[in-house]
Amino acid sequence: MGQSQGVGAAVKTSTDVLQFSLPTYSSVTGGLYAILEALNHIVNLQEFHFVLFTDSMSALQAFKALFPVNPLVLRIQEQFQQLRLQCK
């Protein structure tokens, strides 16, 4: 997806491909949103082994905060906890 079209994200599993797009000004949000959508999808799958890839350094850096305030980071942390409880 080109810069003029916005920020693109995709989630691919063995059975599904989900695609999203956000405006160009939301690169951090786009990266976080893609991670959240991937985790939301993983929570509902019956499989137990996953690899999540991202090229969004800004999204990864958002996790470095000791006390994050970004609502997407908080939701991602909640989803990680849900996955841990499911042993995924």
From TrEMBL:
UniProt protein name: RNase H type-1 domain-containing protein
